[in-house]
DNA sequence: GTAAGCCTTGACGCCGACGTCAAGGCAAGG
DNA sequence: CCTTGCCTTGACGTCGGCGTCAAGGCTTAC
């Protein structure tokens, strides 16, 4: 199949596939007219890349998976190098999530404080009764 | 004080302050020689911006806080517009954290599966006894 | 006098993963 | 023959928040 069809089947664009090729991932055969041609193996390879990209992996981080598939292994993560990337990514994600949770907590505190200091209530709530409803949220 | 001193006191660089000025935040007076001059209010304003930037706010999102301070309010978040930014940010962070946790879980699962499918154990563990240790981790 | 150290504006560089446009080739259908 | 729709390469644009360099002005210290 040619580049347009492969792109569509993988839910991406020809430009993206050419970009991957320029980065050394996803090489292509050529027809006599110079058109790139791909087979089902290339589709699987591309799907592997896209899956990892959707996870937020950088392109370079997908390379071990690609190499692994190219080496004939059943899956992109059937190689130690790929698993090492998994591990690094999990650690990175844990760290990032932790940071974001800390920021979220901080901003949450500032929000509550700022709301409390505002003269008028933040939004029409609470001021209806006397002290009911204080632990509910919508 | 001039730009270098302000930058240092805020833990940033002159380039950054000029950039903020180009974006319409943090305006400066000028000496006869054309040098930018700042006062303590400018420092507070800049600190507000830096704090939010460290939280991951985009520059545009700091604008309501700056406007609020400029309007003479005691804090950058003493205005409804700033509080609205807080709220949007909290929601955005919650969404992002949720996404990252989902990705983390997915990658974690793939990692365990890939490790299990590897011929040799992932790291020297588990294979010592027969079936002990199966729920421990390092 | 001149070197050091501050400042000015202007403009290009960077990063990642492409989008978009330009100019042109090839094949099929009417 | 001509249009349509694929494809090709090349090259510049995007976004955010600056870094870095160039060329030059001002002031102070030696």
Can I get a quick summary?
The structure is a homodimer of 138-residue chains. Chain A has 138 residues and is mostly helical.
Question: Which spans of chain A of ≥5 residues are poorly predicted at pLDDT below 50?
Answer: 124-138
Q: Describe the strand arrangement of the main beta sheet of chain A, using strand numbers.
A: 1-2
What structural class is derived from the secondary structure elements of chain A?
mainly alpha
- List the secondary-structure elements of chain A in sequence, H or E: HHEEHHH
Mean pLDDT of chain A: 89
Query: What fraction strand of chain A?
Result: under 5%
How are the SSEs ordered, and which strands pair?
The structure is a homodimer of 138-residue chains.
Chain A: H1 3-10, H2 14-22, E1 29-30, E2 36-37, H3 40-55, H4 59-70, H5 80-117
Antiparallel strand pairs in A: 1-2
Helix pairs in contact in A: 3-4
The first copy, chain A, binds a DNA duplex (30 and 30 nucleotides) through helix 2.
């Amino acid at each position: 199949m040619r580049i347009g069809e492969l792109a569509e089947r993988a839910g991406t664009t020809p430009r993206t596939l050419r970009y991957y090729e320029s980065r050394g991932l996803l090489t292509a055969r050529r027809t006599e007219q110079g058109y790139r041609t791909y087979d089902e193996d290339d589709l699987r390879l591309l799907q592997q890349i896209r899956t990892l990209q959707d996870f937020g992996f950088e392109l370079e981080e997908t390379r071990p998976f690609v190499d692994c598939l190219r080496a004939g292994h059943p899956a992109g993560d059937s190689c130690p190098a790929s698993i090492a990337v998994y591990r690094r990514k999990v650690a990175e994600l844990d760290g990032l999530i932790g940071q974001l949770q800390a920021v979220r907590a901080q901003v949450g505190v500032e929000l509550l404080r700022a709301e409390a200091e505002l003269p008028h209530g933040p939004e029409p709530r609470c001021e209806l009764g006397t002290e009911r409803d204080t632990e509910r949220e919508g």
